[in-house]
Amino acid sequence: LFIYSPVGMGKTHLLNAIGLEVGTTKKAMFISSESFMYHFVKSIKSNEMVKFKDFFRKANVFIIDDIQFVNGKEGMQEEFFHTFNALIEKGSQIVISSDRPPSELDRIQERIKSRMSGGLVIDIQPPDLDLRVKILKNKFNEIKINFKESYDLSEEVFRFLASEVTSSIREMVGALNRILAFSKINTKSPNIYECKKILKDFINSNNKQ
Question: Which of 86, 99, 133, 172 is most buried, judging by how many CB atoms fall within 10 Å of its CB?
Answer without folding.
Answer: 172
